[in-house]
Amino acid sequence: FIPYMRHLLRPTHLTVLLLLTGLLLVSGCDKKRMSYVDMIKQEEKEVKHFTDSLGIRIIKELPADLITPEGTFVEIKEGLFIRVVEKGTAVTGSQRIISARMEIEGIGPRISKESIKRMSNGGPYSGGTGALTFVYTAKGEDVVIDPNQDAQESANNNLQCEALLEAVRLAGVPSRVQVITSFRHGPIAFSKDGYALYFKDVRFEYKK
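Now predict its structure.
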């Protein structure tokens, strides 16, 4: 009986072949997923093509009044470009709740343009949608969610990101900006695949 059991437990050529096949399939799936470095390289190409196609100019220095002409963006940090269209007053005090409405577009052929547009809550997309609301913080990259959101506002939480927080820090409130952001500073929902976003029109106000 024992020799018979040993025979059953002994790995066969078929078992080994199946194990190797499984390992190769897992390895193949890992290779299909871009590395972090490759995502940055791919995204930089897509952003370059996007800005070139629209004739967008990138500058390094902020103008004295912060406002730049149409088609001119300031590089705030690597992968984050902001254009202040209308400047507000610097936010003072703590726990100020910011309300934002925006039109969003995806950058590059890898991202579904229509699905991104449907996430917009400003301009022609403002009907029946809630504003994105968050707590203003003077420092740091993490966005603090508005603790008193209603159901419509909370539906926009997947758009919370460092890029918008940096924009309101720069432009103040009420203000209007345009933002081109790398996945490194954008919403988490798009960062895992390395998608850059264009916030075509963002309007900041204090939540009423």
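Confidence is low (pLDDT under 50) at residues 1-9, 11-19, 26-30.
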